[in-house]
Amino acid sequence: MNQNNNGEKELKASEEEIFDSLLDSYENSIGLPSIPKGMEFTCIKYIYYANEDFKKMSSEDCAEACVLLNSFSFHLSRLLNKEKSKLRWCNERILKVVSGKLTEYRYFSPDERMALSIKDDDYAQKIKLLSVKIQARIDRIEYLPIRLEKISEAFSNLSYNKRKNNERNF
């Protein structure tokens, strides 16, 4: 039953790139610039600051760290949303490819029918492999934007406290 669709459907590396460019075009149409490639974020240092580093920071330094961390959080959220969109695209492609074959496996559960249908189609296998990789990337960074926002909030509170302490000292 293993079918490679006689070469009709091959997962090309460019399919993911085409989908990426469609997502980028949409974001550009609503006013968001493309995500810069190779952009270096200077805010990472704030994540690993020691207690003595915090004491050396001024109120303005803390406010700057807050803005930079929020900016990075926004960047990660965009990347995460893009990966989730690609995962949905993969799942829809798999359904489209194997939907006609699902009835061939009548005596199995729906999950087993799906797995067997994917196993019997080379193109579906490639898309499934891509979706597994995408899901791993999502799982790896999904918590980061929220955690960065919490760190940013701590810097905002620290900035406020330092500013209030400076006002009292004058």
Descriptive overview:
The protein is mainly α. It has seven helices and no strands. It has helices at residues 13-29, 44-47, 51-56, 59-98, 110-119, 122-141, 144-169. Helix 1 packs across helix 4 (59-98) and helix 4 (59-98) runs antiparallel to helix 6. The radius of gyration is 24 Å and the shape is elongated. Mean pLDDT is 86; it is low at 1-8.
SSE arrangement:
Elements lengths: L12 H17 L14 H4 L3 H6 L2 H40 L11 H10 L2 H20 L2 H26 L1
Helix pairs in contact: 1-4, 4-6, 4-7
Look at the helices and sheets and give the structural class: mainly alpha
Shape: elongated
**Mean residue pLDDT:** 86
| Strand and helix order | HHHHHHH
**Which band does the percent of strand residues land in?**
under 5%
Q: How many β-strand runs?
A: 0
Largest sheet: none
Helical residues, percent: over 70%
Number of helices: 7
| Low-confidence regions | 1-8
Between the first and last Cα atoms, what is the distance in angstroms? Answer: 82 Å
Gyration radius, rounded? 24 Å
